Amino acid sequence: ADGIEQLTDDYAILSNGNSTAILWTTVQDGVSEVHGALYDGSQWSHDVEITQTGEAARYPSGVIEENGKFLIAFNRIKNIADGDYYKDGQADLCLIQVTPTYDISISDVFIDDKIAPNTNLPVYLTVTNAGELPVSNISADVKDVDGTQNAHFDYNEVLQPGESRELEAYYTVGSTIKSGEIQITVGTTSGVEYNSDNNSASVSVGQSDMEITNIISVEDNDMREVTISVKNAGYSIARNVKVAIQDTNGNEIIEKVIESIAVQAQEDVIFKVDANTFKTENSFIVLTAIVASDTGDANLGNNEQGFTILKGSKSPNPSDDAYEYTIASITQKNNGVDVLITGDSTQNAILYVSSYTQEGRMLKVAAKELTATQIAAGSISVDLGLGGASYVSALLLEDNNSMIPLTAKKTQSLQ
């Protein structure tokens, strides 16, 4: 059966003269289940899981009845722990009847993080045929944050069993941006669905968007007065805004909470940091400022920024003017990024680029040693691997021994 990638040697072909199907078993994580595919006269459907025994299903066989229902027989074998492995236990003969059904579902949905009044905001949804029959005449309804109908879409698409496809809808934004969750529901007129619980998904719109706009550190002997400027660049009031400073291990040193920050408003949060509390042989300390709120965040790529304080002397103000180089831009390219660095220095350096999930978890980090000539030549390509990443950050350091920043940390969201 061409086109069925997961087909194994443990299979059986069923036919009643009008319909044809194939059954087989697939092993994953020590569990074997019966899978199947239907033939429509020209092509095989995608893989559909038929059993969910959680044990070992083997030797499938069966018949297709005249009414289109499947009578399937298989052996269910219990897995018995034997040290680090499992051995076969009791084998039972199982008979199940499968009625091919329509079942369309939303497996993923996301939106553009930029929203503006009186526009159509693109909504991208991944639709999957989770049933055993092909579906066509797919529709999607978009409900507003108050539950009212916002938009309706019809798609001239045919999805084979097990097949997924990305479809595009949009959410009509009014003159006032609302904050809350919009709901997208898909359906089909091909027939009555077996399961409608997986037809809907929600996504947040009009959230607040906290960002760090500036950090200034002022010397007071070994005490540092660190001012972190944060702004709500989103579309709703940010509540319980937490601003914190972390060390290089991600440990929180100090925090302050602001009750609320209005849309487009900025607040300066002042911390007193004692440089002598850090055990380091270096004359400087690398720290990270973090901001978050209880009202969600439209973009987590601007919620943190690195800065440095020096022990025994004035700390640099982490603006571009205070460094020898500036990271002008970060551009996504294939499975990595191009980093453009500007400046007139002759200093060699090491470029560190990190990728993060939407929730802020680091995925990968890459380092690249650069000469001043390479930096001056133009964009630096860094192969990072961006699978699952929502944003990246870049920082230029003097070398691995001193770890002195030569640029402010720059963060860039990915498309």
Inertia-based shape? elongated
Would you tell me the overall average pLDDT? 84
Which percent band covers the strand fraction?
A: over 45%
Separate helix tally: 1
**Level of helix content?**
under 10%
Order of helices and strands: EEEEEEEEEEEEEEEEEEEEEEEEEHEEE
State the low-pLDDT regions, or none. Answer: 313-320
As a whole number of angstroms, the C-alpha radius of gyration is: 28 Å
Q: What composes the largest sheet?
A: 4 strands, antiparallel
* N-end to C-end Cα span: 38 Å
Class of secondary structure makeup: mainly beta
Strand order of the largest sheet: 1-2-3-4
Please explain how this structure is put together.
The chain has 415 residues and is mostly beta strands. 1% of the residues lie in helices and 57% in strands. The protein contains 1 helix and 28 strands. The protein has one helix at residues 372-377, and strands at residues 11-15, 20-28, 31-39, 48-49, 56-64, 70-82, 85-98, 104-111, 120-129, 135-143, 149-159, 164-172, 180-188, 200-205, 210-220, 223-232, 238-246, 252-261, 266-274, 284-292, 304-310, 326-333, 336-342, 349-356, 362-370, 380-383, 391-397, 410-413. It has a 4-stranded antiparallel sheet, with no helix packed on it. A hairpin with a 4-residue loop joins β1 (11-15) and β2 (20-28). The longest helix has 6 residues, at 372-377.
